[in-house]
């Protein structure tokens, strides 16, 4: 990373803060490789807190200028206008992703708002804080397409899609994820939005060993598939994704929809489109959803891919 490029970073952050609402947002996305010399840095706005993430070890000059610039930001009018409170620098490349609090006191469990819906985050303890911000348009799409539907949410994590679906009038959402702790946070997210938990199921199961339980709550009008790119011992993208796709015809009603997602730069849209043709040819590709503009990537095929299919 190049210290000489940091003025671009600060100029971009200041501009985005001036335009920002109080909703959670990515302010700077170096990982999209649109900013030369800043490819390993991101910045998020989280409930009055600026979270800066480094994904690669930087030299002392870069770190010194970065910290100095962040401290100077707190003296600007824009920082007061947005009621900024805290600045945190997280070293994502290091074991445990340690955080440095540069300004203020960290609220590690803020409740944030996205598209009018509330989510509980958990900052600092893990690399991911509980909501993938690049999936905002995907959650919005689910909200707009869930009315009166029975929804299956595979790899549910903290149930962001589920919250969006219930907010959009879904009759039921079935969330499946191996991690009980993540599903517990998902339950809390529904409570934050005053949702009726009788409409939501939380299945802490290995998807590949639980098709019987999953089918029992079907058939479904909408299925969401948003797996990790790789999870040691439980999911390998190119091998295991196809195992899910071949199950879809048995789970869907006629006219049902599927939102299939993949966030690995190693595969492009054709991986999902061709895999669907092979494993579930009854489903037709409809469209790829756009990503939020703040996540612009020099190679759109390397960025998040969210594809709609119909049965």
From TrEMBL:
The reply on keyword rRNA processing is yes
Tell me the ranges covered by the S-adenosylmethionine-dependent methyltransferase domain, including all copies.
25-309
Q: Which Pfam families match?
A: Methyltrans_SAM (PF10672)
Q: Does the keyword Iron apply?
A: no
Q: Which UniProt keywords apply?
A: Methyltransferase, rRNA processing, S-adenosyl-L-methionine, Transferase
Write out the GO MF terms.
methyltransferase activity
Q: Mind telling me which InterPro entries this protein's record contains?
A: SAM-dep_methyl-trfase (IPR019614), SAM-dependent_MTases_sf (IPR029063)
Instruction: Name a biological process GO annotation.
Output: methylation
Instruction: Tell me the protein's name.
Output: Class I SAM-dependent methyltransferase
